[in-house]
Fold this sequence. Notes:
By secondary structure, the chain is an alpha+beta fold. The protein has 8 helices and 56 strands. The strands form 15 sheets. Strands 2, 5, 6, 9, 10 and 11 form a 6-stranded mixed β-sheet that branches. Strands 13, 16, 17, 20, 21 and 22 form a 6-stranded mixed β-sheet that branches. InterPro entries: FN3_dom, FN3_sf, Ig-like_dom, Ig-like_dom_sf, Ig-like_fold, Ig_I-set, Ig_sub, Ig_sub2.
Amino acid sequence: DFGRSSELAFVVEPSDDIAVQEQPLILYCQVEGIQPITITWRKNGVMIVDSENAFMLANGSLYVSRFQRVRGDGSSDEGEYDCMAQNHYGLVVSRKAKIQAATMSDFHIHPQNAVVEEGGVARFQCQIHGLPEPVILWHKNSMPVNTDNERYTLLPKGVLQITGLRAEDSGIFHCVATNIANVKFSREARLTVSGSHSTVYKDPTILVGPENLTLTVHQTAVLECIATGNPRPIVSWSRLDGRPIGVEGIQVLGTGNLMISDLTVQHSGIYVCAANKPGTRVRRTAQGSLVVQAPAEFVQHPQSISRPVGTTAIFTCVAQGEPPPQITWLRNGQILETSDHIKLKNNNSTLSIYGINQTDEAIYQCLAENSAGSTQASARLTVLWADGLPSPPQAVRAETVSATTIQVSWEKPLQNTKEIIGYVLHIRKAADPVEMEYQEAVSKSTFQQLVTDLEPSTSYSFYIKAYTSRGASKASEVTVVSTLGEVPAMPSLFIKVINSTAVQATWEPSIKLGQHEGFKLYYRKVHLAQYTGPVLLASNVTAYNITHLDASVVYEVKLLAYNQHGDGDSTVRFVSLRETVERTVLNPPCDCVKDEQNNKTSTTGIIIGIHIGVTCIIFCILFLMFGYRGRLLMCKNVQEQLSTPQIPRSQRSTASLVLNGAARRDRDERDLNGKQLDMNELERLFPASPSQEQQDKGMTSAHSPPAPHDDTQISTLPLDEFSIIEEQPDPLPKAPRGGSPPAPAPDHGSANEG
């Protein structure tokens, strides 16, 4: 509790008010904290000096003796007032209180005469502006309207509704507007109720629908909806977004007006009034929007903190409201300006102070404000400072060593050096914000530090602090130095032989090259000292063709990247064209374009090959089936040949030739149908007998030259060694003119049956 009361804070703040002309006004302000506390007042940001008209009371409140909207000198007591409180630790400012004068204008809408048939609906309206909002009452025939009559409905905005009209409702009506500023009367209007209740059908009609409203939480909203028709329509309400309206705080006034009490932000939306003909789907609708605002309020208040010199202080202030509030920070009552070591983040919700020092000790305030209201919260920053701490390190120097290294040196502080336990070097890119700073710790006996892994051609800032067990010294002076520029790294180089007199050098651009302006390419014969080049190439070039080379020697190719800081290290490659020449002689060059096209169609070729393979397997199966059937038929024909009388060897040889020729022709025909007769299989099944072989050899040598199948042996087998299918053979064809008997033809019909 002591800690709580020691903080400078407001117990009571001034609030918005409406003042009456020529009447006194009091604005309250009460503060707690460590004394002495000084309280002052401001109006529209200007300090108020005590005068006869306005002065401060002993409790800190402001007293205005005679409030005037406009004074003789043109000034006004209207405006925004705030209270400021200050003690030894800082200053705080209260929320702004808006003070307005009570007023009332003339009526800008008066009630109008109306003639309505009996049973109908009458509506009178009058409107007037004023501060505070005037209260409007209705009089009939100079007497207040009886509000106990349920057929009479008075709405807050100056509307009088009369339903189910009767003859006694006729009369003269006017309204009376009242607030603290004045009382005013409207013009009179006559209501005439004519005839009797009509039974003629009339479609539902909405005479007046809901208007758009903007209100604040906890207020009351009245959405008007008055409808006519015969039969009398039923009025219902809904939300356009489909959400339920609810029942808490909801009330229906009269025959269809919707009243919502104690508004919340969740009540915002578009409301639809519907007039329905009873028992049907005939309806008419009207709609109006309701916007509920909520003044700013804090979800998280900033908290007072204590921090040692050189550390970071962070305040967090989170506010909510509708519309979302704007957050502003004050330092001892003045708008806080950001800098290198003071940053605002997260839509000003987070205040960070880096490398704090004694000048940062103050009271920091968070102001949250929107169109519905404002609020404030404060917190104090205490900077811890111990007596006897070392003075700042001296003579801080920074020297550039390379493109990525800087050496920082310093001298020990002038005072209080005995308790030093070490130093901390603070490092930051000069262009970066303070929060990007990082530190390196150094022992107390070291007075220089080599800072590595820096970026080339970049400015860095450095400062040193000496640390003891009780705290840190103040920061030394800041020194800024830049690293050297860096030459590009080695590019990756590849050599491709194009032909016997040309090669292509290619390389890959890499981020490791850094900032480079281009490339330099050199080449030479290895036995020569002189290079050809440099060939200067732009930074976006990645290939270069070297032509008119000698195929009998080895070449050296060198590539490097360069920039404004100089040439980088080179990449060297050796290439020989001799092997290319030898390969060209031994193997003619391939048609690369054709190979590329073949590669593009490799997938299609694989698919076609699979189909061909499957087809071949099917044909092989068919071949085996029909080949076996053909061998059986051939066995039958041979048996018939063996049973016929022997013919001379000369004729037999010729017949053999004819047989072979017929077999070949028949095979050609079977090739077309996928069916073949293997003569070698026939010769294997029926080898010739030795005696007959000798006789055949003698006749062949005597009468004719050797036949192509002179090694074929035909022998007679007993019929019981194999089975013959009984089928009717086709007639034998006639012998050709040479006199040789025809060869037995296979039965195509039988083969086709398979």
